[in-house]
Amino acid sequence: MNDAVPPLGKELRDLAQEAGSPKALTRWRLVRIRANQTMLVLGTAGMFVLVFMAGLWGLRIATNERPTVPGSGADNVLYVLNDAPPEEHFPAAIESLQTSEAGFSSLHRAMVGNDGDFVPSPDGASLYVVSRLPTGDGGFRDTASVFSLPGMEKAGEIGTPGWQGTTGIRVIRKLAVDPTGSHLFVLTGFVDGPADSQQAILTLDLGRGKALAEVAPLSGCGSGPMMFPTAEFSLVVICREVDQARFLDLNATGALEETTTLPIRRSGETSTDEFGNVTDVSYAAAAVHDAASDRIFVVFRDGRISVIDAGTRAIAETVQLKLPDGFSVGVPHAGLREGELVLGLGRRGNLDATKGDGVVTVDTESWSVSDLITTASFSSLDVSQSSPEVYTLDRDSGGLQHIDVASSEVSELGTIQGRPQGLIIGP
């Protein structure tokens, strides 16, 4: 038997071992291009069959038959982004789900484009989705779709030139809305230019339904930056790859007026697996913004936290959490509710840094860490702002979980079929 790994398969395997690291995102884009080129050899007839079959099962919602814990399903509305694989040329979807003790049921579905990302408005009345829609002639158009909640009626579209997509795996959110709800910031790029200057922030005027004329460059920020708007034309960008926080002030045309750069130190801690492979476990895994105190908590994989005061543009505090033995913070699994951080943790032996299989809470005053709540594998996490609840979703298995962090009770609600990339808890 021939155990040789084809070149493309080997590259995909190697990428899985690096998943979650900032530099892996660039390689993923190149692998996707090669995968798409490989698919061309299937021929026209084969592609039609693939599209037809994918359409039958790719976006179905099915309830898992495994029992749930009584009383732990909760009563919430979730919004799930279900992407389509890059080789399947049919639209992805945003699905609203009603959870209950019995599992979940589908409420509404809105078709969107592939390779997308989504974010709700501050008041919870709208959902913004930036994606790549097919044009019907074999091409694509990048657009921001606006949906009214809770019914998910489409309210409009705004073109987003230069959208770079989510590179096939939604790791870092690439959209953010300013606190007033007036502008949507989109992590995008220049159409032309050297690689180091391609990344930029495009500002969409939601009131006028159009993109502003200029973009704000993020040269040298590296892959996977995280955006946190603090005012209508001001935002903080965490450059994970180069250990910086950048405070950007834009003008009314979307152009960059002023930048303040704040270095963020990491510990440099490494981890060695059973085969002797050494990996960095100290880079920034996630960050969350506490609007009430205007602080940003930058969480590193090894449990180090830098607390940034967005008002003074300085680091207010640095702490080192004592995480459960053998665990690191997953990418980008963090949430915040009423002065308590919720972190998704993954085992250090897991080669995929974007996966978690446990949750802890952290008191941001005493910095005490709760006992580990063990869960099934997940790749997305969101924290309720009205109750001590967390929902997780796994992009590979489709498993949806409900976690009551107050009682440490975990409930498996079912399986979402397709390629679920992320979830948001509705208002």
- Order of strands in the sheet with most strands: 1-30-29-28-27
What do the pLDDT scores average to? 80
Distinct helical segment count: 3
Radius of gyration: 21 Å
- Unreliable spans: 1-71
Distance between the termini: 55 Å
Question: How would you characterize the overall build of this protein?
Answer:
By secondary structure, this protein is mostly beta strands. 10% of the residues lie in helices and 48% in strands. The chain contains three helices and 31 strands.
Layout of strands and helices, then pairs:
Layout: H1 7-18, H2 24-39, H3 43-57, E1 61-62, E2 77-83, E3 92-100, E4 103-112, E5 114-120, E6 126-134, E7 140-148, E8 153-159, E9 175-177, E10 183-189, E11 199-205, E12 210-217, E13 226-231, E14 234-239, E15 244-250, E16 256-263, E17 270-272, E18 278-280, E19 284-290, E20 295-300, E21 304-309, E22 314-320, E23 327-337, E24 340-347, E25 356-363, E26 373-378, E27 380-383, E28 389-393, E29 399-404, E30 409-416, E31 419-425
Antiparallel strand pairs: 1-30, 2-3, 2-31, 3-4, 5-6, 6-7, 7-8, 9-10, 10-11, 11-12, 13-14, 14-15, 15-16, 17-18, 19-20, 20-21, 21-22, 23-24, 24-25, 25-26, 27-28, 28-29, 29-30
Helix pairs in contact: 1-2
Summarize this entry quickly.
The chain has 427 residues and is mostly beta strands. Helix content is 10%, strand content 48%. α1 (7-18) runs antiparallel to α2 (24-39).
Task: Identify the notable features of this structure and list them briefly.
four-stranded antiparallel β-sheet; mainly beta; five-stranded antiparallel β-sheet; 48% strand; 427 residues; disordered N terminus
